[in-house]
Amino acid sequence: MAPRRRGFVLAVAAGLVLRLAWVLWLGAVEPLEATSDTGRNLAMAQQFADLQTYRLNGLVSAYNPPGYPLLLTPMALVSRVTGWFALPIAAALVNVVAGGVTVAAGGLLAGRWFGPRARTATAWLLAVAAGPIYLTAVALTETVFTALVVVVVLVVSGWMLRASPVGRRPLLLTGALIGFAGLVRPPGLLLVLVAAGALAARRGSWRAAARPALAVAGAAALVVLPWMVRNVVQVGVFTPVATNGAAFLCQGHGPEAKSQVEDMTQADFERCFTDSPFDPREPDEAAWASRTQRDAVRWALSHPLEEIELTWDKTYATLVNDHEALADARDGARRDIGGPATLRWLDRLSEVWHRLVLVLGALALLLVPRARRAWPVWATAAGLVAVVWLGNALDRYHHTTMALLAVEAGAVLALVHPGRAWRSATMAARRQVVEPWRRRVERSEEHRTVAQREREGAAATAPSVEPDPVDGEEPAPPPSPREGLERSARPATGWTGPYGRPFHPLLAAVAIGAWVCALGFDAISQVADTAWLYARGAYVLTGAGVAVGVVAAMVGLADLVRVPRDTPAFRTGVRHLLAMDASLVLFAISFLVRRSSSFEWHDPVAPLPLALSVVALATLGVGAWLGLRLAHTYGVRVAVDEDRLRGFEVDA
Prior knowledge:
By secondary structure, the protein is an all-alpha fold. The chain is built from 26 helices and two strands. Helix 11 (244-252) runs parallel beside helix 13 (285-302).
């Protein structure tokens, strides 16, 4: 298997393992409330497994979309017949599979637009997505919906990029998939427009794409039609999927409308849910849905200024953070994940991933033309954000958008060629750091040589004078390998250590030891009762390592300038220097971040300095490996053969 393909496969496997481990760690619990989102999804699946129509609070209802419960129905049937597992854990396992599909399809989508390097990078980015991993454990629609959307965008992107015509079967299958995505969440029906746009781009005009686009739309309509007929016949409401859209509209448009669900008051809920299926009195769902939608639309049209402000607030609230994913996974705090420190750490993980993808996705759209040409990706993401304008915001509404932005982020990650970046950094360091230092040392050696010759010829009647160099004179030939080895074995100055006993390895060992111990204290602080004690110890050790590391870097640079240029030893030395200095910078940042801690009794090390230290140690490992090669393979600052052989002479 090719290395890039191997990385992609490993990313998909890692995504599945992480999600499965999360589900097994949290376990399965019944929903806190039967009328919650998770409770309604599971109850609907159980009713379908019993061959019953959907009822909410005992009355036939069209409030919930049926797609996700239909997917859970076989699991509900097996659970009811065999009793081998509970339905909540079965729903979580379905989400695990859907999460793996998202990782694979997202990577393939990035590879289709930006190349194989983007495929692997995007797959890993999606595999470690903390917020989506958290939602895997609960029976919410977002995980399955995201997988369906990414798969559809992958398919329609293939229509645009390949030369062969699109057959009838792919059109119908894609339309059916879009229809099912609409049954999972109604915004999925927007994918019909994305597919039509892709066909128009493929065929050159909207007129040429009309027939295949109608085939896609017709297949989607055929999937949705049976449920729509059921809603008309059994509930008396004409809606393609569900009446919860009426509540969604009401919550986002009306007197005292709020941009976020969590800001709604009891009065807001009463205004939007009176006569709804949740009303304990005699509800009239058909009349409620019609009246609520009509009132919301009228208010929106008559209050344009308020709508502009609400639209901005909804967009901001949807994309600004991901702090509710962990709360949703805990299902009303009934799942015991850990103490406050663990919860803060997990919450920050989702925040870091969320903001990283936002930044990378924005950079891709601003700087990479290929990312802007991948309009099915960003247009779908933008459309899903625009859907929130119809109602109000919940954090989990952005998960599908973030998966598509992670695909766009692959365009930026594909530009980072590790080998090319390493060579560029090496050459830059050589030009800006190593060569000026080398010239300075060579000039000082030349001055010392001239002074020595003057002292030796002071007693002579006619001291010899070296002729001035002539313009155009041929440069001195490079030293032989033997001369280069002997030169690199000698110290540049006295403060780098005497011959055969360099100071650089000793200083580096002290710094590395301090950093490794600091990471150990970081880990202990996450579980210890006296967390502050280990957090403060890690802070002191990190600072000590940085102080010693700065000295070690200066001594190592002085040793490096003794190595002849344009040799394998010199190139290895420059790379060793870059890796070690990069880790030093990361540890310095980690130390500065740690200074903000008050080291309270139950205050463990925060995730950011911990993550910085882990990355810095990984970089340090690369640099140390290169340093071992520099010393033990090429013999830099190691005594020459004649001196080493004396250590093996047998005593007479």
